[in-house]
Amino acid sequence: MKHILIAEDEIEVARFLARLFELKGYKTTHVENGHRFDQIDDYAAFQLAFIDVRLPDRNGLDILHDLKKKAPQCSCIIMTGYGTVKTAVEAIKNGAADFVEKPFEDISAIEEMAERLIDTSRGNSGEADYAALARGRNCFLGTNAAMHQLYEFAYKIAPKNITILIEGETGTGKEVLAHYLHAASGRKEEPFIGINCGAISESLLESELFGHVKGAFTGATTDRIGYFEAASSGTLFLDEIAEATPATQVKLLRVLETGEFMKIGGTIPRRTSARIIAASHVNLEEASHQGSFREDLLYRLDVVKLIIPPLRERREDIPLLIQSLIEQTNEKIIFAEESIDLMVQYDWPGNMRELANVIRRTAAISNEGMIITPDLLPGKISGQSQPFSVPIQEESPANFLNEWRQFSDRVERVYKGDDPMLLNELIKEMKKMEKKTAAAMIHNSLKETAGNRERAAARLGLSKRQIRYYLNEK
């Protein structure tokens, strides 16, 4: 029989949970304090535990720690009241499977949570839910433990209606993680709207976020819905939140505190239930100490903080990541082992974005099946001083044009009867010249576009597939 431990000092709450699960055929054991918890004979008998974050004689996190140590297979749910959500989030970081807020609002959700966690504790096989969702969203996790812990934790807190702050260096994938959080939440069918707070001016940013009424300023010819209103039932992603001006920070603080905002030029408060995910490559705590970011706004944003590790801290994933990015380009190129070693050693200040750009550029200027040796890597990676370029083999313009002149002269001689060459042979020679012409013009265009195949193809009116054909069929 499935056995559930309930560590709760509020008798009514404990009785409710016990009755709820006993009616479903579960066995329950109730302890009202840490002393009674210490007297339990067989901790291994429990598949699931509901633990109040505050007991009379002991912190719920201490109970969690002791139980996970004595019964690692037991899944734990922390029960928390208003104002202790950060403690519950800390509990998840320390091994809790989930948390619920009291008073309970959705009993069916608690039942579903319990069933799922009990099944997990009984050893269900297969890919973890968080990893499966990440793979389906093209989120590259690799084998790095920190990335798996990050996405597993994100999966647990995604369904909660709490604000999330994502920090990480430029190019680490903050928006990718934000989309993942949205997909793992109950809002996944609702809009996901993102805005870069540093990419537009202060006046335009406020209009984009809050909307405006007709006549609010010059050019406001109609009412406009802002992102807070448009994303009211979904997720609003505020990228580079540190770039928001002080005036905008004040207005953002009001929305986070009250759920209300005012359109520019408007007089009627409006409400939003949008889930806020903010991101910054700047450490907001340091920015707050320096006075460039409001401390009270930081407190509102930093309910849950997710920090994405830079690529240099997950070097073991770089070879697999290179292969994944090559597959996304649909190009058949191979990086030599020496090249991969150099790329693993490189620090990647631009992180995932920089690596993706290097792979795309390499694929664009390389022939199908080409082996990418160290001399074909950017100088900053290979340590060589030459710029990033792939030598483009081409025939001398003078030689190519001379071949055409010679061929043209022969066509004239055949036509006049001065050359005994048969027509079929002449047509074969003509086809060879056609391919030579295409290849020569492609090489010339690649040279003029610094090896950029997309630009070269556009100039010639060809597709990249046609370019590959002509270069491989000389």
UniProtKB/TrEMBL annotation:
SMART domains: AAA, REC. CDD domains: AAA. Keywords: ATP-binding, Nucleotide-binding, Phosphoprotein, Transcription, Transcription regulation. GO terms for biological process: phosphorelay signal transduction system; regulation of DNA-templated transcription. Residues 140-364 form the Sigma-54 factor interaction domain. InterPro entries: AAA+_ATPase, AAA_lid_NorR, CheY-like_superfamily, HTH_Fis, P-loop_NTPase, Sig_transdc_resp-reg_receiver, Sigma_54_int, Sigma_54_int_dom_ATP-bd_1. GO terms for molecular function: ATP binding; sequence-specific DNA binding. The modification 4-aspartylphosphate is found at D52. Residues 3-117 form the Response regulatory domain. SUPFAM superfamilies: CheY-like, P-loop containing nucleoside triphosphate hydrolases. PANTHER family: SIGMA L-DEPENDENT TRANSCRIPTIONAL REGULATOR YQIR-RELATED (PTHR32071:SF121), TRANSCRIPTIONAL REGULATORY PROTEIN (PTHR32071). This is Sigma-54-dependent Fis family transcriptional regulator. It comes from Pseudobacillus wudalianchiensis.
